Amino acid sequence: MSTWRDEKNQKARARLEKRLSALFPPQVLAHALRQPLTPPTQRRAMESYWRHRPLLADRLARALAAKSGQPAGWQWRLGAEKETGLPLTFRMPPAPYREGAFSRGPGHCCVCGQPVYRLGWHRDLWDDGKPNRNATWHAACVVAWQLWTAPPDHLRVLKRRQKHKCATTGRRLLRTAEVDHRVPLFAVWSEHRAKPWPELLAFWGAPNLQVINKAAHLEKCADEAAERATRRSALVTGAE
């Protein structure tokens, strides 16, 4: 097995170096050469780099979104059909540049709105001023979107960030620990909907994600359910 891997890596490295651009990000190349299986192409090396750094991808995607800003006339709304480009539930992060009315088209990221350059990079390292017209995602924004929409898939990274301590009790995280949003997403929809779009993204990103033990999570969910019931009751009473 070791011999097989060594031979495979030699071939992959030769293929990668043969096509390597002089301006290819050195940190991405260093990452690629450290992997157990060397990525054979620049694009796969780029994808591997961000896949191993979801928290960095999250920070970058939100910074790029802040650079783009909220499109004029956009409001966070929910849709009934996928074709509209609107999220179907408040649990999905708002994404104005995924909506047909605000999309900036090929060559721009549908998540953050900024230009996409070669290999899905977010900066014009090649200094030719030409976005990649075949791309609609940054490599980093792909990983950030995965973190925002499926945070349990990044449990190990989030545990490591917390030094394997429960965010609510301070005790050792157990194997059954779960990812949780500090501010629940229903509260984001009801209380923070009017915030500028780039600020909203933090509620899906790392600043609002925590890992807590299952018992603490169940208790938190029960408290949140009681809070929602109280709000519904208050609304009914007010309507009467």
Structure description:
The chain has helices at residues 2-18, 26-34, 42-51, 54-68, 139-149, 155-161, 185-191, 197-200, 214-239, and strands at residues 178-181, 209-212. The chain is mostly helical and 240 residues long. The chain folds into two domains: 2-142, no CATH class; 150-239, no CATH class. The longest helix is centred in the last third of the chain and has 26 residues, at 214-239. The mean pLDDT is 92. This is HNH endonuclease.
Q: What are the salient characteristics of this protein?
A:
mainly alpha; two-stranded antiparallel ribbon; 240 residues; 9 helices; flat
Record field, number of beta strands: 2
**Structural Rg:** 21 Å
What structural class do you assign from the helix and strand content? mainly alpha
Helix content: 40-55%
Regarding quaternary structure, what we see is: single chain
The main β sheet shows up as:
2 strands, antiparallel
Give the mean pLDDT.
92
Low-confidence parts: none
What string, H for helix and E for strand, traces the elements in order?
Answer: HHHHHHEHHEH
Strand adjacency order, main sheet: 1-2
Q: Assess the beta-strand content as a share of residues.
A: under 5%
The DSSP helix count reads: 9
Through-space gap between termini? 73 Å
Short summary:
The chain is mainly alpha-helical.
Provide the fold topology:
Blueprint: H1 2-18, H2 26-34, H3 42-51, H4 54-68, H5 139-149, H6 155-161, E1 178-181, H7 185-191, H8 197-200, E2 209-212, H9 214-239
Antiparallel strand pairs: 1-2
Helix pairs in contact: 2-3, 4-5
Organism: Microvirga splendida
Protein name: HNH endonuclease
